[in-house]
Design goal:
alpha/beta; 17 strands; binds S-adenosyl-L-homocysteine
């Protein structure tokens, strides 16, 4: 629905902190008081579990939603689209459900440095006459700028996504980014994406400056992150989320754990210190390379990572007789949730506990319904507010075998 006019204001309505809150497709809840947002999110997840999953939640230990202290400037990553308007290069964010750019120079859930980076890139494009990409004609060069910061280290990465094989005068861009960001800037790269697609990043990334990665910590585990790798966007809340996942996994040091959809190994390494052995599986090759480096970086030896589709890798390993006694499976799939094959194999492997980390409560509810048909029981649920001011929710659930103690 679209807001047409306000007849009677809700007691929870507040003045949005951002001037483009209504037109921008990013934060949909800027006009809602934050404590009401947290209630809304808790209700959304519970309702999905009831209505889609068919769960009676009276026997489930539902913990209070974990919110932020101050839901502002929390995102460690932003991807700004570039386009053209009235013959000028512009940037901002896409308006809701469209690809027209709402122009702005600051986003209050993003880092303050974004503004300087965007200015440096726009000035560079102007000076060297480099046009932004135009989706309709497929012409033009600069498509997106990806900016990432390690909150614990202060390190910054800038990646320019281009519709070309190289960026003319890129040395000048590196110079001006270095002078705008100083020694915190650890990586500048270009990513080549010449396809007519909504997918932001192409396959090839070329480093122009630095090592091609930044480093960051979650808790005391250090991570190396490249432009392509998935890395949770809200580091403050991520630590709380992973701590909850660790608590639900109830590790004593004796367990064999599988971390499916492991990204750069964040959850795997977070759990490895408390487990006997952790296996991680992830589809993006570059992320697994990072995961292996991250294990080395932290001297963690009781982990092994696989590249591939999680559902195919665990099914293959199961059918080859390589895996039998798994104590805990952690899954953290993308929004579309678990593949049916993954669920079928999990139900053959029958780990004692399943910890399901989910960024979409409707697919979570659908998947839990299948897992809880016969073998598992939904024991605990915590919603963690990872995406403050947007309607997206993150939750973590504990499932345990029906005939076994937690
Ligand atoms: N657990 C990680 C990443 C979670 S995001 C973290 O917390 O950082 C989901 C991840 O699933 C992404 O890294 C994505 O690349 C990966 N992915 C998507 N489909 C997959 C599949 N079929 N098999 C394995 N990994 C997949």
């Amino acid at each position: 629905a679209r807001l047409d006019s306000i007849i009677k204001e809700s007691p929870d309505r507040i003045e949005a902190k951002c001037s483009v809150a209504r037109s921008c497709g990013g934060c949909t809840l800027q006009s809602l008081d934050y404590s009401a947002e947290l209630k809304l999110k808790q209700n959304k997840v519970e309702n999905h579990l009831k209505r889609i999953g068919g769960f009676d939640l009276s026997n489930v230990e539902i913990e209070d939603i974990i919110g932020m202290e101050d839901p502002i400037r929390y995102r460690n990553k932003s991807q700004f689209p570039f386009g053209r308007k009235n013959g000028k290069n512009i940037t901002g964010y896409f308006a809701g459900r469209t690809h027209s750019i709402v122009e702005f120079d600051d986003c209050i859930i993003g880092i303050e440095e974004n503004k300087n980076v965007l200015k440096a890139v726009l000035d560079f494009m102007e000076k060297y006459d480099i046009p932004a990409y135009d989706e309709e004609s497929g012409k033009g060069v600069v498509r997106h700028v990806l900016i990432r910061k390690g909150f614990a280290t202060g390190e910054l990465m800038v990646c320019i996504v281009i519709n070309a094989n190289s960026l003319p005068h890129s040395d000048k861009l590196v110079e001006s980014l270095c002078s705008a960001l100083g020694s915190d800037l650890k990586s500048v790269s270009i990513n080549i994406n010449k396809k007519n697609t909504n997918v932001i990043l192409g396959e090839k990334t070329v480093t122009l400056y630095g090592n091609g990665y930044i480093e960051d910590y979650i808790g005391d585990v250090k991570f190396r992150i490249s432009p392509q790798s998935f890395y949770q966007v809200n580091p403050v809340q991520t630590k709380k989320l992973y701590s909850k996942a660790l608590e639900y996994a109830a590790l004593t040091g004796e367990e064999t754990v599988w971390d499916m959809y492991c990204g750069i190994g964040t959850i795997s390494l977070f759990l490895a210190k408390s487990a006997k052995f952790v296996y991680g599986v992830e589809i993006v090759d570059a992320a697994i390379q990072n995961a292996r480096e991250n294990a080395k970086l932290n001297n963690i030896e009781n982990v092994k990572f696989f590249v591939g589709k999680a559902e195919e890798v665990i099914t293959g390993e199961y059918e080859n007789g390589n895996i039998r006694d798994i104590d805990v499976i952690v899954v953290d799939p993308p929004r579309k949730g678990l593949d049916k094959l993954a669920i079928d194999t999990m139900l053959k492997l029958l780990p004692k506990r399943i910890v399901y980390v989910s960024c979409d409560s409707s697919t979570l509810a659908r998947d839990l319904k299948m897992l809880c048909e016969k073998e598992y029981e939904l024991k605990k649920l915590t919603v963690v507010d990872q995406f403050s001011r947007s309607y997206h929710t993150e939750s973590v659930c504990l499932l345990s075998r029906k005939d076994k103690a937690v």
